[in-house]
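thought: fold this chain, then report.
action: predict
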Amino acid sequence: MLSNPSSKYRAYPPIHLPTRQWPSRTLKKPPIWCSVDLRDGNQALAVPMNVAQKLELFHALVKCGFKEIEIGFPAASNTEFAFNRTLIERGHIPDDVTVQVLVQAREDLIERTFESLVGAKKVIVHLYNSTSPAQRRVVFGKSKDEIRDIAIRGAQWIRDRIPRLAKGGTDVRLQYSPESFSATEVEFAKEISEAVMDVWQPTPQRPMILNLPDTVEVAMPNVYADQIEWMCSNIRNRDSLIVSLHTHNDRGTGIAATELGLLAGADRVEGTLFGNGERTGNLDIVAVAMNCYMHGLAPGLDFSDLNALREIYERCTGMTVPARHPYSGELVFTAFSGSHQDAIKKGLTEWERHRHGEPWDVPYLTIDPTDIGREYREVIRVNSQSGKGGVAYLLESEFGIELPKDMQREFGPLANDAVDALGREVTAAELKGMFWREYIERTEPWALEHFHADGSAGIFRCRATVVRDGDRHNLVGEGNGPIAAFVHALGGAGAPKFEVANYREQSLSSGTEASALAFMQIKLADGRTQWGAGVDTNVELAAIKAVLSAVNRA
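observation:
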């Protein structure tokens, strides 16, 4: 890297817009959505999709609720052309879905494009030509006037062919893009756009789409917003236009540029699922739609089964969605940090018990994962960075084991040390195994063979048989309950002196084979405390086993 990058690079000049309004606006409604997965996304794949893959993804987009879908560049290849014909001839396009096709301002390509659309019900013909100084100088070697003439001729060739499709009942809408708009002088972008408008003659009743792409991100997103507001404020017959955005992600701010562009006055957004596209990608249309959703705006797109959509996308495109990708990545709702886990656990508990019907407000979770088909068990996962909250959450959510808070503080560090030694994430089943080994399976030095207690009026007597270091002992004891009687009996057999400090029980299952899980905290003569746990179909025996578990651990 250069020590002085200003010798080679320069910041994009700001737009003079002292009356800008977008910074103080809020988004009141979602934009019109157009998926360009099958064209822009497809051309960015190392191995483009075949007809069958494009067809599967098309149906997935329709299911999500897209009403405008760019299906390809039909003049680019036989596969693209064949896909158009398959969609149209086999009736795959719902009546309420408009398909969009892209074409350069060349007559032969426009002719081939119109051939591909015969028989379609609703189409958008999308014309583009590049307009930036670098494109004019390097690629075309043409002046502004010559570049404007290219756009005008392309618009005329399209206008002249519309009657051919209209005769067959096709509703044709028109779209123009000054490609590389983000790097084009706004004055020239306005000039060339108005030249196309002069040919197509849009009206408020029959508007054209003016797409202003951030083809290459060359500036901060606020500059793009200024460009959009400048165009919306200065272009002629704004009420006859649907202003559309098409951002890329070269600076990593494609989503921000789109959202600010909407505040600046745009009506429509083009993008792809999960941001697939040239170079660093297109706009992630899922993220923008979900950003609307988390602010209470119904986006008009349904991502309630985002995992299934991701699977279709990955299968059709060969791409993968990164684990930390907003909303859709495997780990985006997952917490490994102990403090995060504790906050999420408490937040979810509060939400489920007290806050239904109120605004969502759970720490670290911007939306309820269940709204997009995710499960709460995905939210908290345990590795060496985790704490007692995550451990307790997994045991409760997966197995119904509700550890007392003091026991969480005891078992959490023990589990954390075990996970740290493994050096990887552990499953809920592995955590349960750790708990079982630490508490339930603690049968040395004391193991229970038999226990019976009876009594009334606060006086209970017990008889028990225990094995200690291989020797069998028959014990008797009495107290104000079965547990107290057993504690008394153990004291007579040489167990350390202790008293019961805390006791809780719960059911692990239902029906005739239900198991009871007992938690027992004992306090030793030196003031130390120790937890134990026991499981049995008999509640009384579960408690007695929990006593021995605590004694054995002491």
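thought: worth noting. The radius of gyration is 34 Å.
final: tokens above.
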